[in-house]
Amino acid sequence: MVIPASELRQRIKNDNDRMRLDAATAEQIDGLYGAVDWEGLATQGFDKRGDYCFIYSYPPVRTLRTIEPDAMFERSELEPVADVLNVYLHIPYCSGICSYCYFAKVVDNKNAPVLKDEYIDLLIREMDSKLERYNPTAGIGTVHFGGGTPSTLEPRQIERIMSYLRGLPRSGDLEVTFECAPETIHADLDKLKLLRENGVTRINLGVESLDDRVLKIMARRHGADMTLRSLENIREAGFDNINVDLIYALPGQSTASWVETMREICRWELESVSVYRLRMHPMKRISKLEQDLYPSYEDGLRMQLAHGLVMGDGGYLRVQSHKYARRRDVMQQQTELKRGVDATQLLSAGCGAYGFLNSTFYWNTKSLGEWGAALRENRQPTWVGQYLDRDELMRKTLALGVHTSSGIPRAGFARKFGADPVEVFADEIQRAVNAGLFEVTDDVVRPTELGYFFGDELSVLFYSPAVRGELDSLGMKYGMFFEQDRYA
To answer: What is the C-alpha separation between 460 and 482, in angstroms, rounded?
Structure first.
């Protein structure tokens, strides 16, 4: 007898719903939940309903327009050419396609329009061309390999790109973060050793959950056993800075099963943990599932409260709205710098990569075929973007600064823009202070603990009237999802 997939998914939910939190944790979460005036905050615009997505860039993608391929090289007085750059490199290959993923990716099956060996060559060509046009003598301060799944790269490809990076000027101790998926390293200690030997300093492991059945709903290609073996391998390879990504509010997940995943991760005493609420892109398969599989809106809030509680009990500090670390010196530098006041220049290369050079926010095409064709013809693979004037640069600083560990430094902001953020955004900041989401000192504007909980909503608070008007016309609040994906 074949059991329909929908029935199997419902069984997973029913099983997890039967799990019970221990009484002390349940009481603590209930206490935290009861202490917040959710209805009052919602009337002020501080809730997570709508097209929710973590605010990782500004302006939001749905407001971007086609720009000239070389637009990012237009000089800017407010964003002078930097001597030290953050670098992001996108590797689009994956062992399969997760049901929720909206990043640029292709299945690594030898049928992609650009194969991996050529991809690395073209990636280097794009890096060279951008560095030459921007600042040929710039030092590299941080590097992040994202995807896709960078750990699908083969040894010769890893050696090729890492050899290239070692040949560039660098600034101090180079932080190199490399994203990995458990199915690519759980049985491949040699690959991890190769990464370590070639200069990678930090591993980011895409765990998402330790519930095997929920992972299947997500179309992940690993289980908890692969994750735990991967963590053993990463340590054995010599890495002393490991981050894992976790996702909550997943279909079939309950607060109790979420807490169980977090507690198991805490036992590993990893250096940092990132937690994200599920982002439901309307075009992705996961958004087409039965809606009663998902935790309720209220349970999603409880899960978010739970991660602050459990991670704190596990010896972690909250260092950003969605990140925890055992010590502040092991948190990822790039995520802090690119969202700050200074050192925000982000040179990004690869299919679907977004970057910020001079005062231009740019996004490369998400089509691997288009990206490869552009670089073979020595053209920039730019898709969309926007040149940010003074007002939009200030708004970017606030919208992204709320996701940093220290908030927005008033003196640094004034030095750059010639004005105090508390005066420029008096109404917005006072509104957040009145709601208990911001604290203002002589030195800084930063979220309170409750403010970090509503970090994305604080970001939206600083969207410009033009951006907000455009999103209103689309019926959107966050605007972080493209209307249509362009893959292959």
So the answer is: 17
pLDDT tens for each residue of 108-145: 998 999 999 999 999 999 999 999 999 999 999 999 99
- For residues 15 and 257, the answer to whether their CB atoms sit within 8 Å is no
Q: How far is 449 from 374, CA to CA, in rounded Å?
A: 45
| 19 Cβ contact partners less than 8 Å away, ≥ 6 residues apart | 254, 256, 257, 260
- pTM value surpassing 0.85: yes
Structural domains present in the chain? 41-59+389-478 (1.10.10.920), 64-337 (3.20.20.70)
What is the 8-class DSSP label of residue 82? P
* Strands 170-180 and 202-208, bridge-based pairing: parallel
Q: 292-311 burial by CB neighbour count: b if 16+ within 10 A, else e?
A: ebbbeeebbbbbbbbbbbbb
Cβ atoms of 305 and 387 closer than 8 Å: no
- Scored b (16 or more CB within 10 A) or e, 355-377 reads bbbbbbbbbbbbbbbbbbbbbee
Distant-in-sequence, close-in-space partners of 260: CB < 8 Å, separation ≥ 6: 19, 210, 211
What is the CA angle 156-160-165, rounded to 5? Answer: 150
pLDDT in tens, 42-96: 999 999 998 889 999 999 999 999 999 999 999 999 999 999 999 999 999 999 8
Q: Cβ(271)–Cβ(326) under 8 Å?
A: yes
Task: Say if CB 202 and CB 243 are below 8 A apart.
Answer: yes
Q: Which long-range contacts (CB under 8 A, 24 or more apart) does 390-396 make?
A: 390/78, 390/417, 391/464, 392/58, 392/59, 392/464, 393/78, 393/79, 393/359, 393/417, 394/419, 394/421, 394/424, 394/425, 395/58, 395/462, 395/463, 395/464, 396/58, 396/59, 396/361
Q: How many CA atoms lie within 13 A of 337 on its CB side?
A: 22
- Using DSSP, state whether 136 is helix, strand or coil: coil
Instruction: Tell me how far apart the alpha carbons of residues 29 and 24 are, in angstroms, rounded to a whole number.
Output: 9
Closest C-alpha among 214, 202, 211, 154 to residue 177: 202
Map tokens 């994750």 to a residue. 227
For CA atoms 209, 302, 396, 474, the dihedral sign is positive
Separation CA 449–CA 185 (nearest Å): 36
State how far the Cα of 289 lies from the Cα of 7, in Å rounded to an integer: 12
